[in-house]
Design brief:
CATH architecture: 3-Layer(aba) Sandwich
Structural class: alpha/beta
Radius of gyration: 17 Å
Order of helices and strands: HEEEHEHHEEHEEEH
Helix content: 25-40%
Distance between the termini: 32 Å
Strand content: 15-25%
Shape: globular
Length: about 220
């Protein structure tokens, strides 16, 4: 008996990974060790990268349909959506105060849900897409992904859609790292045995480890 949409469609699922953290915690910096032609970079707000390297495949903009279109025909096996939160913010800033606000929040949630499901069900199983978000915290010190509206937080729970959710952190003036497991107050998580508790801020190394752990292809350029 077929038990999932991916099986019914005759294809395996691509992998989605969430990277989140404060501004300046090294989220974009973690891309530096990828070769220029190894990734599709979706630059949602046309922000300059914090290093001089330029990637060959770049989409500037936050339109969900354009992002899906480029993901579907990218010539590489890794995509990074930086910063995915602005895919929501742009829709909010362009629509708030105009028309039905309840519909606006629903449309924002729908666009993010659609994007995650497109990656999961429509891309090849040797593709990994990294969704980069800013973090937010409440009065209790609990840290989560920064989103727009309550629908995504209360009904969807974006981190629940992925197995690997890494928190970009900075200590002192020059120590950048990823936290791979929750400290009880954040949403960091990864499979047992995949990573140490803290690992270098290197998304290329993270990608290689995930591929090795799950047996996803031989390299990002296969």
């Amino acid at each position: 008996m077929k038990s999932s949409s991916a099986i019914e469609r005759g294809k395996a699922m691509a992998e989605s990974v969430i990277i989140y953290g404060k501004s300046g915690s090294g989220k974009s910096r973690s891309l530096i060790n990828f070769a220029e032609d190894e990734i599709l970079l979706v630059n949602t707000i046309r922000k300059r990268l914090p290093f001089q390297k330029k990637f060959k495949y770049v989409l500037n903009g936050s339109d969900t349909n354009k992002i899906k279109d480029q993901l579907g025909k990218m010539p590489c096996k890794v995509a990074v959506i930086d910063d995915c939160g602005y895919e929501m913010i742009t829709k909010f800033m362009n629509g708030h105060g105009k028309g039905d606000q309840f519909k606006l929040y629903n449309d924002i949630a729908d666009s993010v849900w659609t994007l995650f499901n497109y990656v999961k069900y429509e891309l090849p199983d040797d593709v990994i897409v990294y969704f980069i978000f800013h973090e937010d915290s409440n009065d209790m010190g609990e840290v989560k992904i920064r989103t727009i509206g309550k629908l995504l937080d209360q009904k969807v729970c974006l981190e629940g859609l992925v197995t690997v959710c890494l928190r970009a952190m900075k200590q002192g003036t020059n120590k950048y790292f990823f936290r791979t497991q929750s400290d009880g107050y954040d949403i960091s998580k990864s499979p047992e045995g995949m990573f140490d508790l803290e690992i270098p801020n290197d998304l290329k190394a993270v990608d290689e480890k995930i591929r090795s752990f799950y047996g996803i292809g031989d390299s990002v350029n296969d």
